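Review box. Two proteins, two foldings.
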Amino acid sequence: MLNPKPGLFVVAFIPQFTSPVRGSVPVQMLVYGAIFAVLTALIFSLLASFAAQLSNWLSRRPRVVAAANIDAGATFIAAGLSILVLGRRGAA
C-alpha cells in the first residue's frame, strides 16, 4: 500500500494505450488501471499458492533443503573465487 512504484508504473506505462478518440481519457486510465490491479492480484495469488505448496513439500524433505543450501553456498564460493581470479588477471 505504501510502495509508490506500482502507481508510478501505471502513470508512466498506461497512458500510451489511451486515446481521446475512444472516449474519456481519465475513464480509460481507470479501466486500464483496474485491469492491471486485477491481473496483479491474480498473479500474486497464484505465486503465493505455489509458494505455499513448495514450502509444504520442502518441510517434508529436509535433505533437499540441506542440499539446496550446500549448492547455494558452493555457488557463492565459486563466484567469489572467479571474481578473485578475474581481478588478479586484470591487474597483471
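Next protein.
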Amino acid sequence: MADSIFSKIIRGEIPCLKVYEDEKVFSFLDINPIAPGHTLVIPKEPAETLDQLSDESAAALGKILPLLCRAVMKATGTRQYNILQNNGKGAHQAVAHVHFHIIPKPNSTEGLGIQWPTRPLPQEQGQEILAKIRDAIAGTVI
C-alpha cells in the first residue's frame, strides 16, 4: 500500500485537529467538512479497504465508533448523523486508507445528501447470492 495523507497525519508530518487517539485508532476533524463536526476515524494499520484490514484493527474501530458518534452529536447538538465508509475508487473512496466519516445531519440542507436507487430483488437471484455469501462465510475461520 502506498503511503497516504492519512499515514502522514498519523505520524504527525501533517497537522490535524485531533479528536482521539489510541494504539489502533486515530480520529480528527475533516478539513473539508460537509457539516460542522464532520469527523474522520481511521485505523493506524495501513489498509486500503475494509476487507484488507486485520480483525484486530476492525474490532478497535468498531469499539470506538459509537463513543465518537456520541461525542460528535453532543458537541454539535445534532441527533441525526451518517456513518460513511467507501471501499475503492469506483465506490468514491478518495484516500487509499480505510476511513469512516461521522457526518452530523443538523437539518435537511446540511450534512450528507444521498440518492438510493433501489429496485426489487428477484427471489431466484436473492437465493443465489445468499448461497454464495453463506459459502464464503463457511470457508472463513472466525
